[in-house]
Amino acid sequence: MSKSPAVTGTDPDPARSAQAADAFVAPMAFEQTSIDRRSISEQVANRIMSMVKSGNLKSGDRLPTEAQMGIAFGISRPPLREALKALTLMGVLESRQGGRYTVTDLTASRLIAPFNVMLSVADYDVNEHYLTRATVELELVRACTVLATTEQRQRILKLAVDGRAFHGDPVAFRLMDFEFHQALYQSAGNRLLAAIAQGLYNVGLELRRDASAMPGVIERSVVQHIEVARSVLEGDAAGAVAAYSRHLEHVRDTTIQRMNAEQQTKRHPETQG
């Protein structure tokens, strides 16, 4: 009987390394599919995540060498390394001494991490994205208004009000914005929905970085944060949901404005000074 290629390097658990190597050989032999070169890194990352979610790869498994994974996937090292780097940034993998990767603990937030890969998708649909955000986050806001403790409500309001200090500092505001949304998600009492919401929040952040620097965007966001926070503090679920819905519409619309501006610049670069 033929065996999978031996995993090189010293491993305290050779059986586990062999199992991890087999996880890469069997799925590819079964699927008999070629990877689309236009999105090769994204597809590799998604395939590894599928193995993690199915249990084919488990927490603590040491992945094969880059050479072995390249053979299994039928790809060169540059796109493979890009996929591994993305999964490392997501927290799904961690790099160990010697250049080998290990699967990390499989918390809910890590399993939702493939949303981040959408950052590289060329056909990003902003309306679809914000419709999905509304579906998840409006429920979280409603639950937060009902279930949050007094301390959590007060922190949400403080984060919203403190945003006034960052009207002229987009970088500082983005940090405050992250904390504000996280506080809402985490106060709703549903860790899985909170993880999904965080994954959706992270999609398209490059566009949001640029949009937040547009005149008036931060000021309007701060006003809306305060409206949401005050409704949460008062236990007004309907008011909080309505205010948060307006905020998401503002975020969506300013993102579209930024996208249109970028497209205009690409079409008419001569208009730039």
How do the helices and strands line up, and which of them pair or pack?
Blueprint: H1 14-31, H2 40-54, H3 66-73, H4 77-90, E1 93-95, E2 101-103, H5 108-111, H6 126-147, H7 150-162, H8 170-186, H9 191-202, H10 205-212, H11 217-234, H12 237-267
Antiparallel strand pairs: 1-2
Distance between the termini: 68 Å
Q: Treating each run of at least 4 consecutive H or I residues as one helix, how many helices?
A: 12
CATH class of the largest domain: Mainly Alpha
Beta-strand residue percentage: under 5%
For the record, the CATH architecture of the largest domain stands as Up-down Bundle
Helix content: 55-70%
Fill in the CATH topology of the largest domain. Answer: Four Helix Bundle (Hemerythrin (Met), subunit A)
Number of strands: 2
CATH superfamily placement of the largest domain: GntR ligand-binding domain-like
Instruction: Give the SSE string.
Output: HHHHEEHHHHHHHH
Rounded radius of gyration (Å): 22 Å
The secondary-structure class comes to: mainly alpha
Based on Cα principal axes, name the global outline: globular
Strand order of the largest sheet: 1-2
Q: Could you tell me the mean pLDDT? A: 81
Report low-confidence residues grouped into runs of 5 or more.
1-10, 26-35, 117-121
Kindly give the count of domains: 2
